[in-house]
Amino acid sequence: MLISIHPTTPEPRIVQQICDGLSRGGLYILPTDTAYAFVAALDSPRAINEIYRLKNLPEKRALSILCKDVAMASHYAVNIPNPIFRFMKTETPGPYTFILKANRNVDRRGLGRKKEVGVRIVNHPLHRALMERLDTPLISSSLTTDDEYVTDPEELAELYGKAVEAVIDGGVRPKEVSTIIDCTEDPPRLTRQGEGDVSGLENLLDLDDAD
User: Are 101 and 84 in contact, with CB atoms under 8 Å apart?
Assistant: First the structure.
């Protein structure tokens, strides 16, 4: 099923429909501020397992959690370094993935077998609307095929329409990726330079392995 939403002011009826489906354990494909992504509720192991199956991911691969804000992210992470915390406060929501040490509040199925979790605070109107109603994190993984991001919702509906509750059409997305900062190391390491600006952390980050 392909459901269109307004790109800047998502219709409340559709937002509530998605919230209800997620709460029932449904799996959706939603637009983010970068690529489209599989999205499920944190406490929906069946939907999370389906993400692993559809993407053919090994269990050791950790998925990301989508949070409302830094306060919510702090509830699921251990000891966010102070400079990273300040950066998150000023630069999010935005196109960043922060790799953090996870605590017991994160569902183990979402983590796979790892003790880290990727945290995203997405800058997209639909994400903000969902977070206001759910007030709980979501599990997520970006849509790729053969290492290429799928950015057309109609193509996504053809590929996965029968495997998910719905593909939410937020328009064709640009081929953008988030900037990944690994905060489990000292100093934190920039592992991928994407859309996010890291100039505010240039004196802190290890940049040796950044793409």
Answer: no
- pTM for the model: 0.90
Rounded Cα–Cα distance for residues 4 and 54 (Å)? 23
- Rounded to whole angstroms, the Cα distance separating 169 from 56 reads 24
Omega cis (within 30) before 93: yes
Supply φ then ψ for residue 168, to 5 degrees: -90, 115
Write out pLDDT tens, residues 102-140: 888 776 666 655 688 899 999 999 999 999 999 889 999
Q: Per-domain residue ranges for the chain?
A: 2-79+106-173
User: Within a 10 A sphere around the Cβ of 118, how many other Cβ atoms?
Assistant: 23
> CB-based burial of residue 13 (10 Å sphere; 0-12 exposed, 13-18 middle, 19+ buried)?
exposed
Question: Domain 2-79+106-173 belongs to what architecture?
Answer: Alpha-Beta Complex (3.90)
